């Protein structure tokens, strides 16, 4: 009886296919964990400074119509459809490395944005209500357009959200103040704001106080 060698597969084994379940797990959970670590580190640096960050001013967006409100959802839907078509045409295994790289870059960009926002606020500290009025050129007058309570969420501690018309700025700006004294503000009140530009972009409020209304 002739001797025959057992048949063996010459193809790559499960550990040689270049894309194992362990790598998939690292790709899925590693980038989000890195972003959380970056956020925790930056928060620890802020806590060591023993100061409250300056309050950012956010321009109030003006929408021209319903299309301006729906285009983000339409764009996201179009991207999902395009990704589905690409996966259907090329196959999941061929598209997986590209999608993995896009996933990684997305979280790295988020981590970079966290660092950029932290550096943008460096040197700005919240002073609260000033006991004495400082130099006039350091302050800007602002009229309260709307004032409403905003509950705490995962993104902020909540407080009184003001829409302000600030002298020298064409577009109204939104300001969130976590201060019990701001709860008594109402539309028509006049504030004096101490403004400071960020290192890269944006305006921040580093101090505020109620100002007497201007008389004609």
List keywords for this structure.
216 residues, alpha+beta, seven-stranded antiparallel sheet
At a glance:
This protein has 216 residues and is of the alpha+beta class. The protein has helices at residues 21-48, 66-90, 92-120, and strands at residues 55-56, 58-59, 139-150, 159-166, 173-177, 190-197, 203-210.
**What is the residue-averaged pLDDT?**
77
- Kindly state the percentage of residues in helix: 25-40%
> Biggest β-sheet: count, sense, barrel?
7 strands, antiparallel
Poorly predicted runs of 5 or more residues: 7-18, 130-137
The rounded distance between the terminal residues' Cα atoms is 116 Å
| Count of DSSP H/I helices | 3
Overall SS class: alpha+beta
Strand order of the largest sheet: 1-7-6-3-4-5-2
Portion in beta strands: 15-25%
What's the β-strand tally?
Answer: 7
Shape field: elongated
- Reading the helices and strands in chain order gives HEEHHEEEEE
Rounded radius of gyration (Å):
27 Å
How would you characterize this protein structure?
The chain has helices at residues 21-48, 66-90, 92-120; strands at 55-56, 58-59, 139-150, 159-166, 173-177, 190-197, 203-210. By secondary structure, the protein is of the alpha+beta class. The longest helix is centred in the middle third of the chain and has 29 residues, at 92-120. The model is unreliable at 7-18 and 130-137 (pLDDT under 50). It has 3 helices and 7 strands; from the N terminus they run αββααβββββ. It starts with 20 loop residues before the first helix and ends in a 6-residue tail after the last strand.
């Amino acid at each position: 009886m002739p001797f025959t060698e057992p048949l063996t597969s010459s193809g790559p084994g499960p550990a040689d296919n270049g894309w194992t379940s362990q790598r998939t797990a690292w790709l899925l959970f590693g980038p989000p964990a890195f972003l959380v670590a970056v956020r925790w580190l930056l928060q620890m640096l802020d806590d060591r400074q023993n100061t409250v960050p300056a309050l950012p001013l956010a321009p109030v967006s003006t929408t021209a119509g319903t299309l301006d409100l729906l285009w983000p959802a339409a764009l996201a839907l179009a991207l999902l459809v395009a990704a589905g078509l690409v996966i259907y045409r090329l196959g999941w295994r061929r598209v997986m490395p590209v999608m993995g790289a896009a996933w990684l870059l997305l979280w790295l960009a988020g981590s970079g944005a966290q660092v950029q926002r932290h550096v943008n606020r460096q040197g700005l500290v919240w002073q609260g209500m000033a006991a004495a009025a400082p130099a006039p050129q350091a302050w800007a007058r602002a009229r309260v357009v709307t004032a409403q309570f905003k509950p705490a969420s995962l993104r902020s501690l909540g407080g009184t959200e003001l829409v302000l018309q600030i002298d020298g700025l064409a577009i109204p700006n939104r300001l969130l103040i976590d201060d019990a004294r701001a709860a008594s503000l109402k539309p028509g009140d006049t504030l004096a704001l101490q403004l400071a530009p960020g290192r890269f972009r944006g305006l921040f409020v580093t101090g505020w106080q109620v100002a007497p209304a201007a008389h004609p």
